[in-house]
Amino acid sequence: MSLNIDEKEKQLQERLEHIQSLEQEILKKEKSLKEREKAKKQMLLRLSPSLWDEIAAWAEEDFRSINSQVEYLLTECVRERKKRKRNQD
Fold this sequence. Notes:
Number of helices: 3
Number of domains: 2
Oligomer: single chain
Structural class: mainly alpha
CATH class of the largest domain: Mainly Alpha
Radius of gyration: 25 Å
CATH architecture of the largest domain: Orthogonal Bundle
Distance between the termini: 64 Å
Shape: elongated
Strand content: under 5%
């Protein structure tokens, strides 16, 4: 009877080790994705003063920096474009 328990305990330990290795793989992938997201590209963007003022006011309403607001707006535009493209196909 104790041998059976020992075998089950060994199997459970092996499963636990397998799960832990899978967790480590997931954590590595998450870290890699976060690092890639942090590595943002920089660009110079020239805007008219009136557009700047509009974006600045909008950013303030949304509690974002102007840079974050511009990134948000661009992200939304790209998302909408992809959505429209899928609907056309």
